[in-house]
Amino acid sequence: MTIFDVSALFVIMVTLAMLPSTSVALVVTRSATLGFLNGAAVSIGIVLGDLIFALLAIFGLTALSGLMGALFLVIKYIAGAYLIWFGVTLLTNRTSTNLHANSSSPSGGLTTSFFAGFFVTLSDVKAILFYGSLFPTFVDMSALSMTDILVITLVILITVGGVKLMYAFGAKKLVSMSKGLKIEKEAKLAAGSLMVGAGTYLIVKA
Q1: Is the N or C terminus of the chain more exposed, i.e. has fewer CB atoms within 10 Å?
Q2: What's the whole-model pTM score?
Q3: Does 64 score more than 60 pLDDT?
């Protein structure tokens, strides 16, 4: 992976991690109602789920690259088309994610919070499709090295984990906003544009 590839991956991962979603709502709710440590536990569970999806995508795509040869180009085109579709969906989606903390919020300790974050991530069918289409944009799957895998892992830990912890830290302020996250529209615009750009880049690069 080049410095450009790593930087682009970092920016996209940060942007998507910031995007209001079920996982963000879970982090904020657990942190606001049960304390920062519970929000942090949710964040760890989310990161672990993301890492599992990422590694499955990496090793799966690497195996396909070696076995299918030229046919792997077709997978790259499909992946690029998916990224573009995902980006357009973000750009056109008007649904908002409201963050609320109330007495009906689920209770439990740190273990419950961790598994809540973990299973919320694993239950997201779009996550595996996202990771499966994202990495071919930045990594030559036919020449993937252990260093590349370590770099990707580190990027996920810093971006997804860091952003979710920031949400946990600022949870009480976030839930006090009457209309949810004020940056939601801008975040979706940025994320959607990045996904369309990444998909286009993947198709051109292929």
Answers
A1: C
A2: 0.73
A3: no
Structure tokens at 158: 């810093």
DSSP 69: G
Could you list the beta-strand ranges (E) of 82-206.
none
For residues 146-162, one letter each, b for 16 or more C-beta atoms within 10 angstroms of the residue's C-beta and e for the rest, the string is: eebbebbeebbeebbbe
Collapse the DSSP code of 20 into the 3-class scheme (helix H, G, I; strand E, B; otherwise coil) and give the result: coil
CA angle 125, 128, 130 (to 5 degrees): 105
- Cα separation, 72 vs 118, in Å, equals 31
Question: Would you list the domain boundaries of the chain?
Answer: 3-94+109-205
Measured CA to CA, the distance from residue 16 to residue 133 in angstroms comes to: 14
- The DSSP secondary structure of 123-177, one letter per residue, reads T-HHHHHHHHHHHHHHS-GGG--HHHHHHHHHHHIIIIIHHHHHHHHTHHHHHT-
Summarised one tens digit per residue, pLDDT across range 3-43 is 887 888 888 888 888 877 778 878 888 888 788 898 899 99
